[in-house]
């Protein structure tokens, strides 16, 4: 979804609004066609999968168009995508381990299913995952693409070389 937001903004910046909307419509049609079968076979995971497939189709159409008409450098996008995917997996693993660890501690203490406890566990997991992702993005300098010069200030502030 993040990739779609970025590349559709690129399309709009290149005055290709109509084409961007057309590619989004194709992705939406793919999503709606797959929605029922995915939901039937996969349950509550189905709509998520059909949305992901629809966005993937739209992304592929936009990237193919940008590459054919503007010489879009796909190799650089692949490198960034791999790094972001890897860091996202690290973030997910850290957040998941945090949730399991805190749930284990909470079950030892007492009421594991209270709303306040669930909120605290969620906030701590988000904080842990976010800090890990931020560190990795700043350390590898992938954050420079999004934050620009502000990433240097953050690196100095957090003492990341």
Automatic annotation (TrEMBL):
Keywords: Membrane, Transmembrane, Transmembrane helix. The chain crosses the membrane at residues 48-66, 87-110, 116-136. It comes from the Bacteria. This is Polysaccharide transporter. It comes from Lentilactobacillus buchneri subsp. silagei CD034.
């Amino acid at each position: 979804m993040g990739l779609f937001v970025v590349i559709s903004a690129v399309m709009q910046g290149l005055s290709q609004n109509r084409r961007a909307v057309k590619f989004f419509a194709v992705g939406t049609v793919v999503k709606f066609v797959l929605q029922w079968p995915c939901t039937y076979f996969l349950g509550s995971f189905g709509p998520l999968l059909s949305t992901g497939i629809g966005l993937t189709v739209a992304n592929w159409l936009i990237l193919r168009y940008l590459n054919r008409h503007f010489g879009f450098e796909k190799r650089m996008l692949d490198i960034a995508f791999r790094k972001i995917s890897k860091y996202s997996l690290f973030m997910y693993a850290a957040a998941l381990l945090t949730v399991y660890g805190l749930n284990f501690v909470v079950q030892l203490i007492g009421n594991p299913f209270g709303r306040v406890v669930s909120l605290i566990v969620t906030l701590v997991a988000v904080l842990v995952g976010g800090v890990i992702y931020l560190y990795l993005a700043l350390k590898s300098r992938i954050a420079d693409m999004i934050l620009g010069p502000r990433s240097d200030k953050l690196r100095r502030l957090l003492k990341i070389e």
